[in-house]
Design goal:
Number of strands: 38
Number of helices: 7
Largest sheet: 8 strands, antiparallel
Oligomer: single chain
Strand content: over 45%
Structural class: alpha+beta
CATH architecture of the largest domain: Super Roll
CATH class of the largest domain: Alpha Beta
Number of domains: 4
Helix content: 10-25%
CATH superfamily of the largest domain: Bactericidal permeability-increasing protein, domain 2
CATH topology of the largest domain: Bactericidal permeability-increasing protein, domain 2
Amino acid sequence: MDRYPRLVRALPLLSLFWLAYAALGAGCALGGGDDERGLVIVEPRDGARVSSSAVRVAGTVRTGARQVRVQGEPVAVSAGEFQTTVELPEGPAHIEVTDGEVSAAVDVFVDLAPPRVTIESPALGAYVEGSELRVRGRVEDVSAVTVTADGEPVALDEQGRFDFARTVPRGAYRVRVVAVDAAGHVGSAFTTAIVGHFAAPHDLVPEAIAVALGDEALEAIADTIAPHISPENVEPVVLAANPVASGFWGEVAATSEAHDRAQVTITPGSDSIAVAIAIPNVRVPFEARLPLGIRIHGTTTATRALVEATVQVSALDGRPLVRIVDSNVVLEGLFIDVSGLWDYVDRTFVTSALEGTIQEGIRTAVETKVPPALEAALEGLPLSYDIELAGYTARLAGEVAELRATEAGLRAVLDFGVNPLGLPGSVDAPGPLLLGLPGAPGGNAFRGVEGAMSLDLLNAALFAAWRVGGLSHSFAELHEPSGRLVDAAVLGLLLPIEGPARDAPLAVNVEAVLPPVVRPTDDGVEIHAADVRIDLIAQTGGEGTRLLTVSAGVRATVRPFVAEDGIGLSVMNVEVSIDGLEDIPGLPPAERLDEMLGELLAPLLEPFTELRGFAIPSFYGLTLVPEDASVYQGYVVFEANLQ
């Protein structure tokens, strides 16, 4: 019997194992070994994707060799390590290292191109009706990519296409889609849109301004009514009633009417206002014409005439409408002073006739003069004024849509339109954005004036400014935040530009492709200019050479505050994003452009976040002094006293 049958049969297996071990030790084509005699490529790893044609190759040598050859070129070994850089063509590449006895190799893929991102819809500068912003496009790259939209993951189908939708509040939007491939290259594309519902360019903005008139305002209105209850207005009515009394004995006729300045008080109610008029020292001289040519003169006096009228206010055809539904006149301290034989005539009869004539004269004067006087006073509501937005002045003109009495005072709601100061350009836009606000906030009890301006009106003004080219700006110079003048040399340190002289100064043209849009936020008001084109121009030899055009988006938070001349709007938290519009080799990714150019170009974009010109107009000849300002339900709300 064979004493070592299993050992003999195991020898072939041991031989195979030894051969495999030797092969591993030599590091042949397996990317490097780890025994003491081995040569190992540490970088790049086998199967890696590299982003540059200049590839660093590094590794370790334990064979005692002082030199290795990388792609056939000698490379020194120091302390058992080697490193060098080799130039590889784009695409798949093979890297081989040898010391003459052993060798190692890795396969890599040289990826020099970033992903190509294309947004197919919406197109740049789109107007999207509704509340859904849907973005569709594709990504092209030789390797797998990771895609995000404004930081949120985006899925691709098998053809590299993306299609995602967001339900968004009405407003302006700038969407940036970023793709990163396995080599670390970054590609991006962006689009811009205004999403919501749009008015026609010339439509009035409904409920654009609301005004609540409290006690101080009603007192000011009352003061404008008092002059209309003057002797010049009462006397003709009194004289028109002559003779005030007549009989077989003759007749009595008033000859004039006089009184001191009337005092008017307006008290609001839930559906009407009570107008009380106190007319002191009423005097009506008269003449009694008796037979035989006898004339007897006298004077009827009243210490005070009290008028109480119930008045309803409303709006008709864009104007205030005032109607007196009831009135009553009471004469206090009535006395008739007659000289001569008149004391023996029937004083009661004549007194009654004169009293009725005076009452009717005053009542008629009140009913004919007070409504137009009150209407004229209410037309003192600010129906036309200028407002400055983003460096452009727009003229606002409106009409009264609603006027009613409340227990707190009078409430007026005004529809406003915007008359652009300039000739409208040829633009393809439906009209200004309407935010779908719930309606003008109701007036609270307040002594002065409470006002509310709709953000829709601001959007209409911004649209009008944009439509006539009022939001285009040119700058002869460009400065760094430190104040240093930016020339072509400075810009060349940031961007791959060629051509102009290094000391050529830069000029800048700025134009809004989309109108800025305001919308309410939890912090106040946000203004967003989603697409502003910036041309950087080198000035050489009296001529301009365009170097680069980029698109910038600027977003800022705006909060109202009380200023000396009215309501101010402070701009804070300005954010700038910048995307290239041209396929320029070496142009940094969009995120790098944000960092490199954002601070430099921010001052050029500030005009698009300016909301000035909220000085409150005078009211009934008095100055409105604001006390408080805030944002409520999409309206800039203020309270002011009259001085």
